[in-house]
Predict the structure of Biopolymer transport protein.
Amino acid sequence: MRASPLNKIMEEEETSIDMTPMLDVVFIMLIFFIVTASFVKEAGIDVNRPDAPTAVKKERANILIAISDAGEIWIDKRRIDIRAVQANVERLKAENPQGSVVIQADKKADVETLIKVMDASRAAGAYDVSIAAND
């Protein structure tokens, strides 16, 4: 039995391109970009930073610590006690060894609290500690 020209045309129209390999590549690229992206971490509160005309913008500041005017210490949007600063900085430093510590202290924050946070950060192994200011 011979195939009619009409059957041959219908068979050609039913053929389609398999999209599975293209979707696999797209998902692999999506996973790659998600894994390699660096996410911005925030300390948890907004502070009124002091002005400093000589302030320099610091790149790669991954460990942010905020000190409010009431003396509250915030890391990763969590309020922590002064005794827990060293452990938290050690954990964050282990996650990102090249990260530096930036302390965002309010203008009216107690200097003693600031010094304790700096000492705890250095005791945790973070020797690149900076204080945030407005330029």
Q: What stands out?
A: The CA atoms of residues 110 and 122 lie 19 Å apart.
